[in-house]
Design a protein that fits this description.
- The structure is a homodimer of 343-residue chains.
- Chain A has ten helices and twelve strands.
- Chain A has 343 residues and is of the alpha+beta class.
- Chain A folds into two domains: 18-154, PurM-like, N-terminal domain (60s Ribosomal Protein L30, Chain: A, 2-Layer Sandwich); 169-321, PurM-like C-terminal domain (Phosphoribosyl-aminoimidazole Synthetase, Chain A, domain 2, Alpha-Beta Complex).
- In chain A, the strands form three sheets. In chain A, strands 2, 3, 4, 5 and 6 form a five-stranded mixed beta sheet that branches. Chain A has a four-stranded antiparallel beta sheet with strand order 8-10-7-11, sandwiched between helices.
- The interface between A and B is large, with 68 and 69 residues.
Amino acid sequence: MPPAPSKMSASGNRIANETDLIQTYLAPLTRGAPGAFELRDDAALIAPEPETDLVFTSDPIIAGVHFFPTDNPADIAWKALAVNASDLAAKGAKPIAYMLNLALPEPPTREWISNFANGLHAAQDRFGCHLIGGDTDMTPGPLSIGVTIIGAVPTGKFVRRQGAASGDHVFVTGTVGDSALGLRVHADPAAFPHLTADERAFLEDRYLRPTPRLALGEALRAHASAALDISDGLMKDLARLAGSLGLRLDFDLIPLSKAAASARAHDPAVAETILGGGDDYELLVAVPPAAIADFRNAAQAAGIAVSDLGALDANISLQIVDADGTPIAIERFGYDHFSRSAP
Amino acid sequence: MPPAPSKMSASGNRIANETDLIQTYLAPLTRGAPGAFELRDDAALIAPEPETDLVFTSDPIIAGVHFFPTDNPADIAWKALAVNASDLAAKGAKPIAYMLNLALPEPPTREWISNFANGLHAAQDRFGCHLIGGDTDMTPGPLSIGVTIIGAVPTGKFVRRQGAASGDHVFVTGTVGDSALGLRVHADPAAFPHLTADERAFLEDRYLRPTPRLALGEALRAHASAALDISDGLMKDLARLAGSLGLRLDFDLIPLSKAAASARAHDPAVAETILGGGDDYELLVAVPPAAIADFRNAAQAAGIAVSDLGALDANISLQIVDADGTPIAIERFGYDHFSRSAP
C-alpha cells in the first residue's frame, strides 16, 4: 500500500457533527426519492409499483480489504455502489434505491466527504437510483461502506443463479481479468512495464470504476436460464453458475482486452490472474440453445458484447484447456474471504 | 472493558470457510422466506403484498462502540436486530425481512457463531421476520454487524417523525433510562451497590435485550401524528420529535422503573443519565388532543404502558423542570457519534 500521512486525508477542515455530514453532503443524494424524507426520519419508504418484485442485495466494502484507504474517495464511492448494482444487473433487475452505512475511522475532512458524495452522485445517476437512508458511525476500525441496494423486476422475472440446464451455453459479457490486472497496476505503477500508459490506465480504471451491465437486463429476463456476476473470479463464479454441471472451457474463448492479452503474451502466468481474479463485474449468463440467437440479438441491441464460453454438460466436470487441448491447472480457484490477504 | 484472552473466543474449533458459516449457521434463519433462496443466490426477492408500502432502516452495531466484544454473542445478535426492529415499531410498520452483513475480525469459533445464530433466531421469531440475504467479510477492524431491516405498513400509513403539531401531547412507552443505567452495571458489576441483585439484573437486561414496541403499531397508525424511538437519549430524541415546537417537561412525569427510581434516590446525578442516555428503544409518540383517549385505550389493549409527558407548544422551547418548577440544566443533551467514547 502506498504510504500516506493519514488514514483518510491530512488536510482541510473536518466535519464537526453527524447532522452536518448527513444534511450537507448526503441529503442532496435523495432528491427524486420522496420516501427518503431528506434523511430526516428514522426510516425510508418505498411504495412498490404494481406487478413488481423487489430485489435486495448488500455487499459492503472495507478499506484494506476491498480498496486502499488512500484511494480517491470518488472512486471508493463509485465502487461501493457499483458492486451492488452489478448483483442487480445479474438478476435482470433495475436499481431504484439504496441504503448507505458509513463507518468512519475519524471525522472526515470536507474535501474527502464532498468528493465521496460526488462519486456517489455520479454512480447513482448512471445506475438510475437514489439514496434513501442509512447510518453514519465512528469506528475504531477501518473505513467501511455498507450499501444495501433495492431493485425492481417485473413479477416472476427474477433471474436465478441456480437454473442452468445441461446443454445451455454460458455467455460472458465484455472482457475478463482486467480488474485483477488493474489492481496490480494500482498497487505498483511499475507493474507491466511493457504495456503502454493508456493500457495500464485502462486496466486501473476497470479496477477502480467497474460498470454494472445493467443494459443487459431485458435480454436476461427474456432469454437467460441463470446468471450471476463475476466478483470472486471467473472459475469460482462459473462453478457457482454450473452447479452440478460441468464445462470444458477453452482458454482462448475467454474474451480479453487488448491490454490483458498483451500482458499475457509477455507473461503466461497472467492466465492464472485472469481465471482466478475477480472484481470485473461482468456477467455469466446461461442460455438454452433455442434462445441463443435471440439472446445474441438482444445483447447487440443493448450494446453489450457477449462471448460464448461453451455448453454446460451433466457428464463432465469443470475444466480449462489450452488451444491444443492440454488441461490448465490453476492453484487458486477464486477469492474466499476467509483465506485472503489485503488487496 | 473486561479483560479477555481473545477478541471473540479463545476456545473451540474455528470456521474454515465462508460457505460453511453461511450454509450451516445462517441459511436456517431463512426458513419461511422463499425469496432468500437459502442464501445461495446473489440477491433476495420480496413480492410486496398489495396495498402495502415497504419501510427500510439500517443501524449497524460495532464492537467497542455499541457493544463489548466479549458480550454473549446471542445478546449481540438480539441487539443487532432489535435496534432495527425498533425503528420500524416507531413508524407503525411490521418487520418482514432483514439483510445481515457480518464483518468478522477472525474466523469465529463454531460455539460463537452458533450462539450468535441462536440469538438471531430468538429475535426474528419474536419480531416476526426472516433473514433473506447479506454478506460475510473478514475485516482488520472490530466485529461489526450491519442489519438492514424491511418492514411493511398499509399504504399511506407510515408514521412520520415530523408531523407533530402544537397542542399534541407527547407520550412515552414503558420506562426511561434503564438501559443507560444497565450499561453502567454491565461495565462495572460494583455499580449501584444499594440496588438488589434483581434490580441490577433488570437494568442490565434492558441494556442487552431491548424489546421493540412493535405491539403499538396499530395504535400509532390510527392515532399518532408523529413518532420515533429513543435511541440517542430522551432529550435528544424529544427535540427531534418536537422540531420547532417546545415542551415544558416535568421530570416527575418521566416514567421510571423501580430500579431506576431507586438509583436516582441514592444519587440525584442519575437524572442526567435518564435524560441523556439512550438505547431504551421506547417510543415517543405525538398524539392530537382529540385522539388521546382512543390512543390510551389502544395502547392498553396492546398491553403497553404509555405516559403523558405534556403538550407541545409553538411558543416555548424544550425545557425540563423539577417538581418545584426549577429548571434542570443538563450538560450532555444526548448521544452524537462524532463526539462519543467507547461504551
